[in-house]
From TrEMBL:
In the C-terminal section; belongs to the transpeptidase family. In the N-terminal section; belongs to the glycosyltransferase 51 family. Residues 92-262 form the Glycosyl transferase family domain. This is Penicillin-binding, 1A family protein. It catalyses: [GlcNAc-(1->4)-Mur2Ac(oyl-L-Ala-gamma-D-Glu-L-Lys-D-Ala-D-Ala)](n)-di-trans,octa-cis-undecaprenyl diphosphate + beta-D-GlcNAc-(1->4)-Mur2Ac(oyl-L-Ala-gamma-D-Glu-L-Lys-D-Ala-D-Ala)-di-trans,octa-cis-undecaprenyl diphosphate = [GlcNAc-(1->4)-Mur2Ac(oyl-L-Ala-gamma-D-Glu-L-Lys-D-Ala-D-Ala)](n+1)-di-trans,octa-cis-undecaprenyl diphosphate + di-trans,octa-cis-undecaprenyl diphosphate + H(+); Preferential cleavage: (Ac)2-L-Lys-D-Ala-|-D-Ala. Also transpeptidation of peptidyl-alanyl moieties that are N-acyl substituents of D-alanine. It comes from Agrilactobacillus composti DSM 18527 = JCM 14202. Keywords: Carboxypeptidase, Cell membrane, Cell shape, Cell wall biogenesis/degradation, Glycosyltransferase, Hydrolase, Membrane, Multifunctional enzyme, Peptidoglycan synthesis, Protease, Transferase, Transmembrane, Transmembrane helix. NCBIfam families: PBP_1a_fam.
């Protein structure tokens, strides 16, 4: 029986395994030697390794040479500036930017402390440090392929902060190394130190030594003491942990360590360091951040357009000192922002305190300039949801002029053509659009149907002219209609994808500008830090999408919306405007109310599209009542704040109701004219009947073909 405490059997098996392993290893090594002797394997491995190293080095050198190193200092010195449509400065865009100061405006104690702490060989190294790289490689191995930081010179840190992301990867470290070499080649050491100190982060939202001096000690960077300079050098390791506002004890402990390092580096004597350690850090916050982002939603939209239309990167826009010339009208923008700040102009919050949201945009119909935009209420989030440009909501009856009434004019109808006003069902699904007040006149003139936003005659008219014609008209106005929504309901604004206020404002520019659809935009020109024009958008043309006569006739009907239609309560006092209201209903189970409320209004000088609603609609978050009750106050306030500064204007037509009344008065008793008009209308109606019959016959024929499987 084997004794488990006897190690002899284990030694025996271990010895047998070792002998077997040595024999296998000997045969393997002998085979590899023969293979290497025959095929020169080691040489090939070395050659491939050298080729790969050369290719990688060439690639990284190319990236470093083609980066913006030459313009780095000028970019760090300047902020991206936004100009309005009159080329007046409207604000600035900030990212990793502080108030830039030259090295002679910074206390000499600061670079001494920084060099002693971060990079003692700064003035002699070629942008990198071999010992530091060795430490990084060792750390990379110890932490199993994870870069943990450290080992970077000041030049490498500058490359990382100003030109690269903060992501810790091996490839990024390699790129950082080659960029540092290029920076060291292009700039003097004093320039590199200057850029580093102006681009470093010091916590509490402050970049650069000058703003940090104001934030923590209430003085200029030139006046920093040894103790304060050592404190700043200490903060570079971890600004959130070592800043004296939030962690005074940590800051003092780390400062004292930096002072000792300065002694070791012969930048201070022991007596000077001891004296500095005895000094208290007296905090004095005099930093006032420049209010550069004055028009947040407009500036957000400018950044979005620069990225999406012109392919720029956000970090370049924010950091590279561009001059961006825009379509902004500062007076209109300020007026729109003031309007949105008035809570009384919006419906009450939901029971849980969720506010009704909104978005509004103003466009000059003559040149497509977006002059003002507000994308929401409450606190602004940088490049967050802009409800004026980014939301997609059902447009309700604001779609009718685009999808129904304008294409009806093209089909031969007129502003006073008689439409059927009866509750009618259509198609296999028995779509039955009803009027909001549930009353029906039997017949109604087109201009009355539009002004009163009646659904029954609008659907009847779209059925007569054909959905396909309505879809084609809407797409001429720059709005794509998904195939799944191409039915009668889309003409009344009830389609799934929806539209943004930006899209609606652009579409209505064709009515305001004699049938020409504006090429709407925020940016007219972008100039980089060197003065080169990289975007020139100053000569965009409008496109004629409908005839000027139809635009005029549409405007005459849309004037009645505010004169005696659904927009009466939204009419700005003392001003004449044309346009359309709209709303989309919530399910009956919610109660009486709407999901979205719209007004798109215009003069010959400006088009304003305004939407309100909840971001997420449900049984406890919907708008009570109809369009003129909810959106009317904010639209009225906006227009009353904007129009006094918008210049004089005059429509080229009268309201349709006025034209109709004048024609009736002139034609009263003239039975020849009445007979002629009746004959003309009869012929036109006959044409429409025949056209409709033909379309129905084609539809029946196609159904029969499908039924018999042909």
């Amino acid at each position: 029986m084997n004794n488990p405490n006897n190690p002899a059997p284990f030694k025996k098996y271990a010895l047998q395994f070792w002998q077997w392993f040595k024999a296998v290893w000997h045969r393997f090594w002998h085979f590899m030697r023969l293979l290497n002797h025959r095929f020169q394997l080691v040489r090939w491995i070395l050659l491939i390794g050298l080729v790969l190293f050369f290719c990688l080095s060439a690639f990284l050198t190319y990236k470093a040479k083609t980066s913006d190193v030459q313009d780095l200092k000028s970019a760090l010195k300047t902020t991206t500036t936004i100009y309005d449509s009159q080329n007046q400065k409207a604000g600035s865009l900030y990212s990793q930017k502080g108030t830039f100061v030259e090295l002679n405006q910074i206390s000499k104690n600061v670079p001494k402390a920084v060099i002693s702490t971060e990079d003692r060989s700064f003035y002699t190294n070629p942008g990198f440090d071999i010992k530091g790289i060795a430490r990084s490689v060792l750390s990379y191995v110890i932490h199993r392929g994870q870069i943990t930081g450290g080992g970077s010179t000041l030049t490498q840190q500058l490359a990382k902060n100003a030109l690269l992301t903060q992501q810790q990867t091996f490839s990024r470290k390699l790129e950082e190394l080659f960029l540092a070499i290029e920076i060291n080649r292009v700039y003097s050491k004093d320039d590199i130190m200057t850029m580093y100190l102006n681009n470093a982060y010091f916590g509490n939202g402050v970049w650069g030594v000058q703003d940090a001096a104001q934030k923590y000690f209430g003085k200029n960077a030139a006046d920093l003491t040894v103790s304060e300079s050592a404190t700043f050098a200490a903060m570079l390791r971890s600004p959130s942990y070592y800043n004296p506002i939030n962690h005074m004890d940590n800051a003092i402990s780390r400062r004292n360590l930096v002072l000792d390092l300065m002694v070791d580096n012969k930048q201070l004597t022991s007596q000077e360091a001891s004296a500095a350690k005895q000094q208290q850090l007296t905090l004095n916050d005099t930093y006032a951040q420049s209010d550069g982002y004055r028009y947040p939603y407009f500036f957000d939209a400018v950044i979005d357009e620069a990225i999406n239309r012109y392919g720029l990167k956000e970090e370049d826009i924010m950091n590279k000192g561009y001059r961006i010339y825009t379509t902004l009208d500062q007076t209109q923008q300020a007026a729109m922002q003031r309007s949105f700040n008035q809570d009384w102009a919006f419906p009450a919050d939901a029971a849980d305190g969720t506010p009704v949201q909104g978005g509004s945009i103003a466009v000059d119909p003559k040149n497509g300039y977006v002059t003002a935009v507000v994308g929401g209420r409450g606190d602004h989030v940088f490049r967050g949801l802009n409800r004026a440009t980014q939301i997609k909501r059902q447009p309700g009856s604001t779609m009718k002029p685009l999808a129904i009434y304008e294409p009806a004019l093209e089909s031969g109808y007129h502003y006073d053509s008689v439409l059927q006003d009866k509750l009618t069902s259509y198609g296999k699904n028995h779509y039955t659009p009803g009027n909001a007040d549930n009353t029906y006149a039997g017949q109604v003139p087109m201009y009355v149907a539009l002004a009163q936003s009646k659904n029954a005659p609008a659907a009847w008219l779209l059925d007569k002219i054909g959905v396909k014609k309505g879809v084609g008209a809407v797409e001429k106005f720059g709005i794509n209609v998904p195939e799944s929504d191409q039915n009668l309901a889309f003409g009344l604004g009830g389609w799934g994808k929806g539209v943004s206020p930006y899209q609606m404002a652009r579409a209505y520019t064709a009515f305001a500008n004699n049938g020409k659809l504006a090429n709407t935009h925020f940016i007219t020109k972008i100039v980089d830090a060197t003065g080169a024009v990289i975007v020139d958008n100053s000569d965009l043309k409008s496109k004629q999408v409908i005839s000027s006569s139809h635009a005029k006739e549409m405007t005459s009907m849309l004037l009645d919306v505010f004169k005696n239609g659904t927009g009466q309560t939204a009419k700005p006092s003392g001003y004449t405007v044309a346009g359309k209201t709209g709303s989309t209903e919530v399910p009956d189970s919610y109660g009486y109310g709407t999901k979205d409320q719209w007004i798109v209004g215009y003069t010959p000088n400006i088009v304003v599209a305004t939407w309100i609603g909840f971001d997420n609609t449900d049984q406890t978050h919907f708008l009570k009542g109809i369009s003129e009750q909810g959106v009317a106050p904010i639209f009225k306030l906006e227009m009353e704040n904007i129009l006094p500064n918008d210049g004089d204007y005059q429509f080229n037509t009268q309201p349709a109701s006025t034209i109709a009344a004048d024609e009736n008065a002139n034609n009263k008793g003239n039975w020849f004219d009445d007979i002629g008009k009746n004959i003309e209308d009869g012929i036109e109606n006959g044409k429409n009947v025949l056209k409709n019959a033909q379309e129905k016959a084609n539809e029946w024929y196609n159904d029969l073909k499908s039924f018999f499987g042909n």
